[in-house]
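Retro notes
What went well: the complex prediction finally ran end to end.
Inputs used:
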Amino acid sequence: MRKFLLYSVAFLLLVSFNAMAQDRTISGKVLSSEDDTGLPGVNVLLKGTSTGAITDVDGNYRIVVPSTGGTLVFSFIGFTTIEEEIGSRNTIDITMSPDVAQLSEVVVVGYGSKTKEALTGSINTIDSKQLETIPVASFKDALQGIAGGVQVLAQDGTPGAAVSIRIRGIGSINASNEPLYVVDGIPVTSGSLSETDFGNFGRSTDVLNSINPNDIANITVLKDAASTAIYGARASNGVILITTKSGSAGAAKIDFKTQYGWSEIAFDNLLEGLNESQYRERFLENYVNAGSRTLAEATALYAQQFPEAAAGGVDNIWLESIQQQGTTAQYDLSFQGGTENFKYFVSGGYFDQDGIVINNKFERYSTRVNLSANVTDKLQFTNNLNLTFFDQRGITDGTRWQAPFYLAYLMAPSVPIFDDQGRFYGNHSSFFMGGNNPVGHLIEDERELKQSRIINNLSASYEIMENLTFKSAWSFDIINVDEHIFSNGRYGDGRNVGGTVNDAATDLTNWLGTQTLTYGKTFNDVHNFDALLGYEAQKVTEINLEATAEGFSHPTLKNMASAANPTGASNQTSEYAFNSYFLRTNYDYDGTYYLSASIRRDGSSRFGPSERWGTFWSVGGGYTLSNAGFMQGISAINFLKLRASYGVVGNANGFGNFAWAGLYAFNVEYDGVGGALWNQTRNENLTWESAENTNIGLDLTAFNNRLNFSFEYFTRESTDLILDRPLSGTTGFRDITENVGDMKNSGTEWNLSGTVVQSGDLKVDLSANITFLKNEITKLPSSILDGTKRREEGRDFQEYYLFGWAGVDDTNGDPLWYTNSTESATTNDITQAERYYQGKSATPDFYGSFSLNATYKGVTLSTQFNYQFGSYVYDGPGWVIHGDGRFTPRSTSTYAHNNRWTQPGQNATFPQQRWGGNQSSNTQNSSRYLFDGDFIRMRTVNVSYNLPTTLIDPTGLRAVQVYVRLNNFWTWVADDNLHFDPEQTINGFYNTVTPISKTVSLGLNIGL
Amino acid sequence: MKRVYKVLIALALVVGIQTSCTEEFLDLTPQQSVSNDDFLQAFGDFESALTGMYNQISLTDWYGRYMLLIPDIMGEDVKQNASANRAKEWAEYSGSNTTLHATEREFWFEIYEAINAANAVINSDFTPASGVQTEFNQLVGEAYAVRALAHFDLVRLYGQHYTFTAGATHPGVPIITEFDVTAKPSRNTVGEVYTQVINDFNQAISLMTLDNNSGRFSTEVAQALLSRVYLYMEDWANAEAMATAVINSGRYSLVSNADYANQFLDGDSPEAIMEIRFDLVDNPGSDHIGGMYKESGYGDYLPATDLLNMIPAGDVRGTMFRTDANLGGAFGNLRVDKFPSEGSIIATDNVPVIRLSEVILNRAEARARQNNDAGAQSDLTMIQERGLATFVSPGNTGQALLDEILVERRIELAFEGHGIFDSTRNQNDVVRDDCTAPAGKCSITYPNDRFVLALPLDELDVNPNIAQNPGY
C-alpha cells in the first residue's frame, strides 16, 4: 500500500514537471539503503529553482542543470532528504536511507488504512522482517514480546500446535478470549477444528497454520475501542489484521529463502526419569513401606514382572528413548512485479518440521497468488488466493496414559522397548498401565491430521466520482480437515479389543460479502475528512463426520476398512451467520487535531430473536502537541501527541451456536434405540458480552528522531459476561448460559526505543516494553469452583484456591497440610484441611520484552528477551507423577526419588513413598504443586550478513543474505523447584504438553 | 443533480447488493437438537424421552459403574489393589466435597438430570391418540419408576439409612417433581423421600401394564424394588408382600447352577428382573463396572477374604473369581470375575439393578424378622442350593437364621452395590479384616457421618437453602 501511494505521487509529480532549456546534463542512480535496489519516484530538485526530475522504475534519473552547477536535493517520502553539491561531476549516484522516525507511515486498520500520525487508537504493527525471526509454523509465535499488552501463549511445543493470544488480559469467563483474526479483510476461522482426540482440547492444532508467515507483509494488532469498534460484536478481545504481500510495479523480483534448523528441549530443568536401579529400589522399598509385601515377596514379584531387568541389561530411561533431534527445513520462492495497471505477487512455500519426539511432525505446502488490475482508471480488481495443505503427525498429552511426557516418567525403566521377538514390548499389559510402550505408540500407532484450506478474496472497487469509491468484496474460506487415530491391539489403549481406530472429517465453509463506500476530501487545505459506510454478511457452516471401529487382525493394517467391529458413527452440521452495518468518520484539522468515530450494528444468529441485534461504537481524539505554537521552540522534541478513546465493543464468540435455546439432544442411545435428553435450558435473553474500553496514549519522538517513547493507559470493563451460571443440580441442569458478571482489566503499556549509537557504519538500537496488568472480577452472583481456582467477586479471575501444603513431617514422613487459611496449625489428615485462597494468581503483574539491534556495514545482530513476573503456575499432573507411590507400581522423577523421606529427622521435600499412597499426600488442588512462574527467556539471537554489492553484482543477483539464528537458547526461572517450562501453561495450568524447543538455524536469502 | 444520483446509487449498492440481508438470514435452526418447545408433542417423542432416561441410568456415574462400586468399596467385601485410583477416597473414607470430578458431584447432577427428564414426561399435558393410550400409560408409568429409583438412590447415597432416626426425620435429599430453573430447594427428610419413592412406584404400577424386557421398568420391577425399599424401612410385611407379588408373577425363575457364572455376560437371564443393558455400541471399555475389578481394565479393587471365606467350598459363587499371578502379598491372588466380558465383546455384561435372588432373600429376611422361620428357611434354601446342590442347612432359627440370611445376601449379591447399605441399615460397624487401606481406615464404627457422601460444593455454592452433611 505504501509503495502504491509512493508510485502514485511519483506519477503525478512526473506529469507536472516540464523540462526547461539547460546547459548540461547530470545523470545517476538512486539506491535504497534497505536493499541496495533502485529507488523509483525520488524527487530530484536543483536547489533554489523549480528545475526537477523524478527517478524511473530502476532509480535512474537525468536532470539538466546550468553549466555553473549547484546543489541537487533528493527527497522521497519516508527517506531522509539528501543535498548533494554537483561540482564538476556529470554522474551522481547516491544511496538514500529510510527515515526511521517517519510517522507518516501508512498502517492497515479495519476496512482501510491510515497514516500512523492520524491514529487516535492503540495499534501495534509488526512487519515481515520481525515475523521471520521464529522458525515455527505459526505467525502468532512471532508476535511474542513485540507489542505491549499482547500476551502470546505457546502452550504446546509440538510442531503445528495452537498458539493463544491474549490482548490486554482475560475479559471473559466462558466465552472466547481469543482475538478476531482478519486476513486481507476476511474474518477467518481460527483455533482447532479437530473432532477427535488429536487436537488435545484445542492445544495441538490450529487451522491458521495454513498461513505461511513468509507471505505476510504486515500484521496490525488493534487493541482499544477506537480501532476495534468497527468489528463490533467480535472485537472485545482485540483484532489481529493480517495483510499479505502484494506486487509492486517495476522489474520482476524473485526471492528465494531457505532455512534449516536443529532443535532440542529448551527448558533445562525438566524432570528426569529414573534409571533401572533407582526404580528397583523404589519398587522394593515402597512395598515394604506399605507393609503389603515383604522384601522377599517384593523381590520375587520384581523378578516375575520384569524378568529382563531382573536378569540385568535393561536400563531404559524412557524420557530419553522417546526423543529425537528435531529439525526444521523451510523453502520459499516468491515472484513479484508488474506494471502500473497490473501487479502480482506469487509464492510457493514448503515447511517441514520434525519435533523433538519421535514421529512428531508438521509439513506444509502453501501457494499464494495475489493480483490486482486497474481495468479502467476508475475500476480496479484485486484477487488474493491462498491454497495450503498441511499434514501433521501428533502426540497426545495431558494425563492420558499414552501422553509421552507423562508416560515416560511413569513407565518403569525396567520395561524394555522391544521383546525377544523384536516387537515392541507389551508383556506388562496385565499389571502396568495397560502395557503401554511410549516408543511403540509413537512408531506403531497413528495419530494424524491433514488440512486443506482455500482462502480467496475477490474485490472490485469503482470510483463513482472524485473522492467517492464503492468497493464490493466477496470472500470464501474453505477448510477440510481429515483425522485418523489408530491404537494397536497388542499393548496400550487398544489391547482389549484388538486395536481401535477413530477417523473424522470436517468441512467448514465461511463466506463473506462486504460492500463499502469511502469518501475522503480536504477542505480549505486544512480540514481533512473521510468516511466509510459498509454492509457485511457472513455465514459459516461446519459439517463433521466421525466414525470409530475396533478389532484388527493384521498388525500392518490400520485403516477402518480392516476393522471387524464398527462401534460408532456420527455426523453433525452447525452454522452461524452475521449481518452488519457500519460507519466510520475521521476528521483532522491540519494534521494537529484529530477526531474519529465509528459505529457498527451487528445481527447474529447465535442469539434469540429478541436479542439478536447489538450496536457498538467508539469515539477517539488526538492532539499533536508538537505542532502547537508553544512547542515550536523545543527543538529536542520532534513529535509529541496525546490520544484518547472510548467505546463499547462486543464478544459473540466462543460459545454454542444455540446457547440461548432450550434443547433436547439426540445423541443418546439405549439398548439399540436412539433417544433424547433435555440437555440445555432456555434463556432467550442471552446476548453479547460488552466491553467498555478506555485508552489514553502518548507518543513522543525526540533527539533527532533517535528516541521513541509511547505510553498507554487502558481499562477494559467487560459487562454482561456470558457465563454458564451454575444452577442447583436439582433443576436437572448444571448451569444456564446467562449474561451475568462483570470483570475489569486495567493496566499500562510502556514502550521505549532508541538509537544509542549512530556513528559511521555502526548503528545500535535498544528497545524495551513492559505491560502492567490487573484483573478483577467486579460482579459475580455466586462463587464458581473451577479446578485449581475459584472465581469470586472482588478477586483476580485466576486466583488459586487450594489446600495449603505444609511440607513433610520429618519425624515420620507424613504429608502435612495447613488446616485453614490462618496457616497456624497442620494436620496429616486431608479431611481436616480446608481449601483457601492462596493470594497467588496466574495473572502476571507485568511482562514484556527488551531487545537490541546492531548493524555494522552488512552485518546485523539482533536479539530479543521476553520476561514475565508475578504469575504462579500449577503442575497439573504433579499429583500423579509425584504421587508418592499411590499409583502402583508407577515410576516417578529423580527429583522425587532423591528428595523422599526415608528416615526420622530427615528434612525431606517428598513424603515417605509407599505403594497405595501416603495418606492422600497427592491430593489434587494443593499448593504442593504451585510454583513461582517468573521467567526471562532469550527469545532470539540473530546474526545476519548482507553480501556487499561488489560481490554480488557480477553474479546478476539483487541481494544475498546469510544468517545464523538461535531461539530460546537461554531461560532463567525464579523457582529452582520449577520443573516445567513456565511459558507452557494456560491460565497457569501445566498439563504435560510437549516441551518447547530451542533451535539453531542457518538461513540463506537470495534476491534476483 | 448527477452527483446526488450517483451517491444514491452507491448507497443502494452498499445496502442492496446482498439480497440476503433479511431477518431470515439470521434465523437458523439447530440441526442435531430439537427445541424443547417442539418436543413431547407426539407419541414418538415420549418413546425417545424414555430411552434418554434409560441411557442416563446406564452412565458411568450411575449404574454403569459407580452406583455399584461406591457402596461396595465402602463395605466389607472389597479391598484396594495397590494401584487403586478411581473413587479411592470413598474406599478410604477420606472423600471431600471439592475433589475434581468427584463421584459425589456426578451422582448428584446425573441423577437429578434423569428426574428432570421424568418430570417433563409426567407433567406433560399431551393427550395421545386412543389407539396408543395403553402404550402411552406404560411410558408415563416408566417415567414415574425412573423418578422413584432416582430419589431412592440419591437418598441412599446422601442420607443416613431410614431407621437412623425415629420417624426418619433426618435430612435426605430435595424431592423434585416439577421443573423450576430457579429452584434452590432445601433437603426433605429421609422419611419424606421414602414416601415419595413409594408413591411414585405405586403410581408406576398403576400405569404400567406391558411386559417389558428386563432392560426396562415393568410392574414387577417396581414391586421388586419396593420390596427392597420396605426392607430398608423395616416394614417387613410390605417387603414380604411385594417380594411375593414378584415371585408369584411367574415371569422369573432362578438361573441354573450351570448358567450362573455367565448370567450378566449372557444377559436377559430368567432371573434378571431389571438390568442395564450394555452392547458394543455403548462401548464403555474399561469404564464398565467390570473394568474396575479386572486386570485388563483398571483393576483397582480386589475381593476381600472376609467375603471369600464365607463362600462354601464347591459353591458356584466361589467360581466367580480368577487368579492373577501379578498379585500376591497382602493382595492375595484373586480377582472378581462377575462381569467377565473381554476382547471383542468387552464391557457388554449387563449390570444388575435387581434380580430374583435378591427378591427371594428380601422375603427371607422379612419373614425371619416376622418370626416366620420356616418361610424364611425355604426362601434361603432356594438360594443356597442353587449355589451348591449338596448344601446342608445348619437348621438355624431366630437370630442365627437372620444372620445366615445376611451372610447369604453378601455371598449372593457381592459386587452388585449393596455393601454399605446392608451394613448401615443393620446398624453394623464396617469391619474390614482383610484390608489394604491405610491404618485407621479399615474399621469404621457405626454410627458414622462418613457412611454417606458429601453434598457437592457446586450445589452448596449456588443453593443457600441446602445443608452439607455433618462431618464434611
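What we learned: The first strand of chain B starts at residue 33 and ends at 35.
What to try next: split runs per interface for comparison.
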